[in-house]
Amino acid sequence: VASVNWDGPVGYTIVIPTVAEREILQVAERLKAFYMQKYQVDLPIVKDSQKESDKEILIGKTNRSQSNKSLDDNAYAVSVKGEKLVFDLGHYVAAHRAITQFIADSTAPGNIVPYEKTFDFETKMLGKYEYVWGDEFDSDSLDDLKWNFGTDMGARPDLVLMNDENPDYVKVADGYLRMSAHRYFSPVDPMVRYATAQTVSTQETMNFKYGYLVMRAKLPYKQGAWPSFWMKSTGKLVPRKTTDYFAEVDILEVFSSVHTLSPNLHKWYADGTHTQYPGEKKESYRFENYYNLNEEYHLYGFEWTPEKMTMSIDGVDYMTFDLSYDFDEGGSMGGFHDCMYFMMSNHLFTEHGAYIPDPEAIANDYTKFPIEYCVDWVRLYQEPGVGELHTKQG
Question: Looking at the whole model, is its pTM more than 0.85?
Fold first, then answer.
């Protein structure tokens, strides 16, 4: 696409909607930082309630006539209209995507490469659910209003957890969240042989009840790998109503398999007792064509209603848990109606692990490292008027 001339950015102002989502505010700051770093131009950021001027950079659905209000939800565009540089967004979810491409295409301050693109985003799913929360991982760091790091999957004598300050283990770049596990030898502890990322969690940032949660990700199906996408009812934003136990929902776990994953439900009682559905038997999903599975992205879905929990792969349901069935006859399934948070863990089975499903499952000298869990995006949809959503406020 041919570039067009634009007389900015000197003397320009960045304009965002008066009521702007966090993503819009973030990309305005990213664009401001870009022009300051590359051209030493300091651009003010204002709301569209301020008086209009000729030299403006418009981001999102502002009240200016140049802002396009008719793009589809899955579209975004950059154009020059008169003197104004315009970032049009069908939905604010595309904000980081639009700015990332614009910055990558920028070669000179007065050269703009206009474009219009679409991506795989829907504001409604399964006929009744509407988008309420998510992360596209299109920025260059993990958003601390959406995520925190946890130790729900703990360290072991031969496995250490690396914190969020080490990009070799947790990194947001090129539109993906990457969690990596490595062969690792500690300079102070000779027993340590492996290291992996801390759990990426919404325990302190987002707790919800009911809806459709879906992740597009590339999981490691390898010897020693224990990736998981799971939930617990011990979130920090809303108190539990069920106090005699907390609930755990394993949307998926890969138990050192090259082709199979498993879901499960657990109750963890205050007295230390633990039960699971259905006992020690695990239902599972097996990929028939798995030879390239470690390089494939799939949609891992979870639908939660007052009646049931259903797991799906690429839109096809493969396991449903009836929430009216008290699987351990403990007298309550209330924990599975408490608000929950979800996590993504890239753990390992090691020789000194607290749980080893099979002696052949543990990582060893023949395991190929690094083992990577790569997330393209994660999105939460809810039916209007059904369930709850609690988020951390900035």
Answer: yes
